[in-house]
Request: fold
Amino acid sequence: MKKVIEALERFAIEVISERRWGHRATLLRWFLGFLSILYSWGVSFRLWLYQKGLCKSHPLGCLVISVGNLTVGGTGKTPIVEKLARDLTGAGRRVAILSRGYKSRRPPFFQRLKEKLQGRPSDPPRVVSDGRHVLLDSELAGDEPYMLARNLPNVVVLVSPDRVLSGKYAIRHFDVDTLVLDDGFQYLPLKERLDLVLIDTESPFGNGKLLPRGMLREPPKALQRADVLFLTKCEGNDLSALKAQLRRLNPHAPFVECVHRPRYLEEVFTGIRRPLEFLQGLKVGAVSGIARPESFENGLRRLGATLVYSRRFEDHHRFTPAEIQRVLERSRARLAKAVITTEKDAVRIPALPVRPPLPLYFLRVEIEFLRGAEELERRLQRAIQGPGRSQIQRTEEAKNPNATAVVSLS
Reply:
């Protein structure tokens, strides 16, 4: 059944991206186009309800930073969330990351029943990390929250579709003064926040159509709500036309140009690290379950690797030992010396029952700001010193007037 569902997902993605043609594909495109009209009406109506106050937005009384985008997947939010959380923590802030936990598995029924009988909230936030220990695996936490928790030892990571609930929980139980919303641009119940919106310069609006006919969650005009526009994958691209288009949609938000920079390779099962030069002239296989696998594979080629085999799974696919073993064996049959995956995929790779025939590495990628970081620092500093400061922070500043943190995005 799982394979049938994934095959249908793959067919739908190929139809949406216009890589599949024929009578069935044409009919599905027409049907999806009709659904996208209904979806557009729903998006507009929901925004109107919040703008008119018929649906309530809640302030949380502390610094709230939302990192999001207009399209589904592929813009690289997680490295930016990680960098912001690390830099804010380094500046003395107590940070919690609030994630929706996309495709994470809910706790067992009896565990939820026990929590309800104990008087706890019926669906409390899942604590992926308490800032000291990682408490959940990737299946219960979700890929991105688990990866963030593993890479940020001093940051609290919570998972819940209700970010107002998890924000209050983080403030009450972990004494935080800064909340970072992972994938939060469309989350309207939480107000008084700094909205950072990512734009992929290689495909800023997909095919220009809304879900489910296209990849847009909202029309491009929604960018007028953004406070800062992050332009990703900027290196070597002429951005003048895109910037002009974005400036018409949002005349006030500054641009931050950045690139996702590969740093090193790490062996999935042993933790052994190798420099990027290891890939020069090396025959490799690639395995991934992400929204845009072609971007990952092209990145390996730019690093000097020769790609002799690739296996693409659906986004957030949970690998089995048999699947990974087959990828390794087929890569070896094509004379590959290693198999490379992404860091996000690596957290879903299970232990193998036998010794792998080839080493399996993930590519560590970090965000690097090219231009505009100074303006982002100013916006963050303004938000830190603004009316959204928590009562905890006001008390600390009363004790020590010079304690205000200075955020540096190094």
